Amino acid sequence: MSLLRQLLLSVTLAILVILAGAIIVSVGSARQYLDAQLQGQSDATATSLALTLSQPSNQDPTVRELLISVLFDSGQFRVIEFLDPTGRILTRRQKEDGRDSRIAAPDWFSHLLPLERHEAQRQVTNGWTQLGVVRLQADDAYARNALWANTVRIVLLTLGAGVLWGLFVLVLMRWLRQALQDDVTARVQAMADAAAGDDLPPVRHPAMVELREVARIITRTHEQVRATAAERQSRIESLELELNQDEVTGLANRKYFINELRRMLEPSAPDQGVDGHVMLFRQCDLQAINQTMSRQVVDRWLRNMGRLVLEVLRERLGPQAWLARLNGSDFAFVLPMMPGPMAVRVAQAVGEILQAQRIQLGQAGLCRWRMVLTDFEPGEPLGDVLSRLDEALMRAESAGHTDVEYLPGEDLRSLTGGRGGGEQAWRTLLRNALDEDWFALATRRDPSAASEGRTLGLLTLHEPGASEPLSGYLFMPPAVRLGLSAACDLQAVGLGLGWLRTHPGDLVLRVSLASILHEEFRGELAGLLAEMPDQSARLLIDLDAYGLVAQRAQVVAFAAMLREHGVRLGLRRFAEQPEALLYLHEIRPEYLRVSGTLLAAQADSPGARRLLAAVLDTAREIGAVADLSAGS
């Protein structure tokens, strides 16, 4: 309800209350006046009749009865009585009970506003002798008719005033609305429609003095709005940029990436749609970089990296290419309408830029990038594509290689049996596998071993109802992400010790770095090895050389615990972490596996030859075997 309507309604209610109060007061005053008149009439008539009957000439019973009858016939009294001194009625005239035809007032009105029955009595004497008492009661028919007529007139007058007030309110409402329309609303609308540099129409002279100040305020407000319009427009443009842009690198942000990918996956028409590939790459050591360098240097490095990657994308895709920063360490871009081979080439070109932009992190070596690639089709749920990227990223982080991890959607569905690769699905599967003991150990001869009789063991997961078991290559990356790698590695060691009990030779098992970092895992593993010392002496634990560089103290402590139980240690991917040469004497591994990349590069690279020679010399000094026949 508008303020004007509220004001007029409140005034109308006040008028109605006043009119109702006036009716009540007027009718009440009239009733009191009529009561007083009836009482005065009764008293005066009783006095006059008593004096008349006190005259000696009127004391005859016949004359007395005649006088009373004459007075009763006047119709002004309802009851007239003459009583002797003992109270016995000598003469009585009374109207019969019932509806009096002279009363025009309705019964409900008589019950609502009753008049009192006024009685009066006087003594009749003869000198000092009392002859009797005259008692009479006035008839209120005329008074009731007068009260009814007066009330009807007052109500009709009040209704007439109310109707006139209603008409006045309607006229007033129309006039006020028109005044507001002409003097306020029109100017506000003009201010809303006016451009930033336009002036308002000239100020009119409002019909109400109060509106003149309002019109002037509107004009001043328009001037202020016009003065700040350019600034607001600039801020809006800035906010639009911030909404879809990362403030540090100037690249697109996560919201822009999600919206663009959703637009490609959800075409507006069934025959429309765009397929293609999505690449995501993550800087795994951003926290360490922030601790090593200042914020300004890191921001400048990220901006430069983003600029170089974007240049590569624009060379391959055109000027419409874009790169998004999803969070602090994750970057992604979309390759629409691009087949797999071309997408892999673009991903490799981006990977070369990223490898060239790596930063030295002290003794831990260069920072690491993890790169993943997957495809998408029109109509595919956005969550499936993002889950596939997350699955590929978990694999890349677990594998530790510097190549692009390519995971097509069809491959993931065939490997996981249509289960999908989201964290929740993996958490449920791994929890059930640990609770229901679905794990087994797959073994094969280790082709890269320097000595005969060594077997490589790999943990597998046998889900009931699945056509094929899942290898550790598939489920260990999610286990590391979900914090379940320690439990899985304990399962692998337990199954390996059981295998050694029934098989000859040595067994090689891989243990993830994430498990070694858990103190509880080291304690449970020590207890497991202590129970089977004969089998522990034939067990070899294979570790990634990166762990010795990144988590030196934990790996050295883990190696010492293994030596206490007779378990030997091996290092793989040694060529990718040459800094590990500094710490080999602390763990004294059984063997060092050098990748084929370093072996292939020694023919053309003097540095590769020197590095390989240093590895061989160090291995001989600590009594380890340098395995040059296998990759990572």
Helix content range of the residues, please? 55-70%
- Which outline best applies? elongated
- The overall number of domains is 4
Largest sheet composition: 8 strands, mixed
CATH topology of the largest domain: TIM Barrel
Strand percentage lies at: 15-25%
Quickly count the helices: 22
Structural class: alpha/beta
What tags apply to this protein structure?
alpha/beta, 22 helices, 4 domains, cyclic-guanylate-specific phosphodiesterase activity, 18 strands, Alpha-Beta Plaits, elongated, 6-stranded mixed beta sheet, LapD_MoxY_peri_C, Beta-Lactamase, 8-stranded mixed beta sheet, 56% helix, 632 residues
What does the model show?
- By secondary structure, the chain is of the alpha/beta class.
- The protein contains 22 helices and 18 strands.
- Strands 11, 12, 13, 14, 15, 16, 17 and 18 form an eight-stranded mixed beta sheet that branches. A six-stranded mixed beta sheet has the order 5-7-8-6-9-10, sandwiched between helices. The protein has a four-stranded antiparallel beta sheet with strand order 2-1-4-3, with helices on one face.
Summed up:
The chain is α/β, with parallel strands linked by helices and 632 residues long. Helices cover 56% and strands 16% of the residues. The chain has 22 helices and 18 strands.
Layout of helices and strands:
Layout: H1 3-54, H2 61-73, E1 77-83, E2 89-94, H3 107-112, E3 119-126, E4 129-138, H4 141-193, H5 209-243, E5 252-253, H6 254-265, E6 276-283, H7 286-292, H8 295-317, E7 324-325, E8 330-336, H9 340-356, E9 369-376, H10 382-399, E10 404-406, H11 409-416, H12 423-436, E11 439-445, E12 454-461, E13 470-471, H13 472-482, H14 485-502, E14 506-510, H15 513-516, H16 519-531, H17 533-536, E15 539-544, H18 545-550, H19 552-564, E16 568-572, H20 584-587, E17 591-593, H21 596-601, H22 606-622, E18 625-627
Parallel strand pairs: 5-7, 9-10, 12-14, 14-15, 15-16, 16-17, 17-18
Antiparallel strand pairs: 1-2, 1-4, 3-4, 6-8, 6-9, 7-8, 11-12, 12-13
Helix pairs in contact: 1-4, 4-5, 8-9, 10-13, 12-13, 14-16
Pfam family, one: GGDEF
Domain EAL: 423-632
InterPro entries: Cyclic-di-GMP_PDE-like, EAL_dom, EAL_sf, GGDEF_dom, LapD_MoxY_N, LapD_MoxY_peri_C, Nucleotide_cyclase, Rev_trsase/Diguanyl_cyclase
